[in-house]
Specification:
Order of helices and strands: HHHH
Radius of gyration: 22 Å
Structural class: mainly alpha
Organism: Sphingobacterium hungaricum
Protein name: Addiction module component
Distance between the termini: 45 Å
Shape: elongated
Strand content: under 5%
Number of helices: 4
Number of domains: 2
């Protein structure tokens, strides 16, 4: 059975589930898997990368490219 066949079979079985607790457990499992995969790909910044990020932030501030939290909240409300 191919990988795609297995995914289709899994979807078909998922659609047959009638128990909310089972659905919730699967949702939790999927979310935990996402978090685990994300965390596995995290790498610490080097000192030079950190300094570069700081320099970019300072430059953005000097060029008035920043937005206040208050203004950002107002913009988000318009979405």
């Amino acid at each position: 059975m191919t990988f795609d066949d297995r995914k289709i079979l899994l979807i078909e079985e998922f659609l047959k589930i009638d128990d909310q607790d089972v659905i919730k457990a699967l949702e939790i499992l999927i979310e935990q898997n996402k978090v685990t995969r994300y965390e596995e790909n995290l790498k610490p910044m080097s000192i030079s990368e950190l300094n570069e990020e700081i320099d970019m932030g300072i430059k953005d501030e000097q060029e008035n490219k920043l937005i206040s939290v208050r203004d950002l909240k107002e913009q988000v409300k318009k979405f």
